[in-house]
Structures are given as structure tokens and as C-alpha cells.
């Protein structure tokens, strides 16, 4: 069924739990607010990186038919940052966020020809196969994440045109630097960091 909404030129689908997982691994604890993605910065980056208009959609597992009180503030913050929020729930055995993102990707593929796609997730096992047809159609497709956690399944799609965009180094969506152990290309090396 075709949506009555005006089409966006680009769709950025955000698996916030997955991105938070990668940040947790880097900082070695539950992230503090300064460690987390600043969604207003992410929306602003996507507006410059992808063809406009851009629609950023955060897919969340509400874990039931009623939104938990603990999530209300987060959802409001996402909306005020310019994100749309898909609140989903399902059976305990379902990967609710992954299923929602897969449905969105398929609908974009079939209902929004030529639309660019961004996916903020490191989870290539669940999403790489869904991105492949978009790349074969020669669409602009990018994975946004922390490059050391980006799945090898995604990296295997770079010859087809998949771009890997680092959330910290390229999109600059964090308030403070993350303590990453990340090799830097010597051509990009800034020696003043060590002086």
C-alpha cells in the first residue's frame, strides 16, 4: 500500500539500542549522557550528507502496549531533535527493532524508488542482505556507526557502493571524544594531539 505522506529523498533508520551498545563497549560502562549520540547533531549531519528532504526514523522497542515512563523523556527528546519515532512491541522471542527496520527497508525499496538510505547500526548479520538490493539499484546507501564495530557483512558491501560513515569522526554527533582505540591513516594523523 502506497503511503499518502510526501516522499522524502532520503531515509535514515536508526537502531538506537545498537548504537548505544557500541558506545557502552567503548566506554566500558553504561554511557553517560555526554557519551551518547546527540540526535540533533545526527539529524543536522544527515541533512548535509543525504539528498533533501531527509526523514530520520528511530526504531524503538517499547516492550509492551504502553510506553514505559522511563522512555517518555527519551522519545520527546528524539522528536524535538527532528526524528520520527517508530514505537514497536512484539513477542519476547522477536527481535522487534530489527523486524521494524527490515520492514522499513523493504517498504522504502518497493515504494520509494531512488530514495537514498542511511542505517545507523553495526548489525550486518540482520541488515546486510536487506541493503544489498538497494545498492544493486545504484542508490546512495550508507551505514552510520563506530567503524571498529561495523560488521564485516557490511564491509563486504563496500565494493557495491556502501559507504561507512563514522558517527564520531565524520558525523561528529558526540559531546566529548570517546576513548577509542582506533588506528588512524597516517595521511590524516594529527601530531599535535601528542605534543
Number of strands: 6
Fraction of residues in H or I helices: 25-40%
Question: Reading side by side through the largest sheet, how are the strands ordered?
Answer: 3-2-1-4-5-6
Q: What would the principal axes of the Cα set say about the shape?
A: globular
Number of helices in the DSSP assignment: 6
Low-confidence stretches: none
The helix/strand class is alpha/beta
Strand content: 15-25%
Q: What radius of gyration results from the CA coordinates?
A: 17 Å
Straight-line distance between termini: 59 Å
How can the largest sheet be summarized?
6 strands, parallel
**What's the pLDDT, averaged over the residues?**
95
- Reading the helices and strands in chain order gives EHHEHEHEHEHE
Topology readout:
Layout: E1 10-14, H1 16-27, H2 39-49, E2 54-61, H3 69-80, E3 84-88, H4 96-111, E4 116-120, H5 124-136, E5 141-145, H6 152-155, E6 163-166
Helix pairs in contact: 4-5
What can be said about this structure in brief?
The protein has 195 residues and is an alpha/beta fold.
What can you see in these coordinates?
The structure is a single chain. This protein is of the alpha/beta class and 195 residues long. 35% of the residues lie in helices and 16% in strands. The protein is built from 6 helices and 6 strands. A 6-stranded parallel sheet has the order 3-2-1-4-5-6, sandwiched between helices. The N and C termini lie far apart (59 Å). The model has no long low-confidence stretch (mean pLDDT 95).
Attribute tags:
195 residues, alpha/beta, six-stranded parallel beta sheet, 6 helices, 6 strands
Amino acid at each position: 500500500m502506497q503511503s499518502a505522506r510526501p516522499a522524502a529523498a532520503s531515509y535514515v533508520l536508526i537502531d538506537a539500542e545498537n548504537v548505544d551498545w557500541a558506545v557502552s563497549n567503548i566506554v566500558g560502562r553504561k554511557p553517560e549522557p555526554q557519551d551518547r549520540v546527540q540526535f540533533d547533531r545526527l539529524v543536522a549531519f544527515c541533512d548535509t550528507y543525504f539528498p533533501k528532504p531527509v526523514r530520520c526514523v528511530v526504531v524503538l522497542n517499547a516492550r509492551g502496549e504502553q510506553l514505559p515512563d522511563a522512555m517518555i523523556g527519551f522519545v520527546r527528546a528524539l522528536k524535538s531533535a527532528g526524528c520520527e519515532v517508530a514505537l514497536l512491541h512484539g513477542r519476547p522471542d522477536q527481535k522487534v527493532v530489527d523486524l521494524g527496520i527490515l520492514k522499513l527497508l523493504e517498504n522504502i525499496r518497493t515504494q520509494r524508488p531512488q530514495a537514498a538510505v542511511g542505517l545507523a547500526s553495526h548489525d550486518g548479520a540482520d541488515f546486510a542482505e536487506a541493503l544489498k538490493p538497494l545498492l544493486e539499484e545504484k542508490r546512495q546507501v550508507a551505514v552510520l556507526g563506530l567503524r571498529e564495530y561495523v560488521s564485516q557483512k557490511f564491509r563486504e558491501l563496500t565494493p557495491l557502493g556502501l559507504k561507512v560513515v563514522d558517527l564520531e569522526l565524520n558525523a561528529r554527533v558526540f559531546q566529548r571524544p570517546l576513548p577509542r582505540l582506533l588506528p588512524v591513516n597516517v595521511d590524516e594523523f594529527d601530531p599535535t594531539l601528542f605534543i
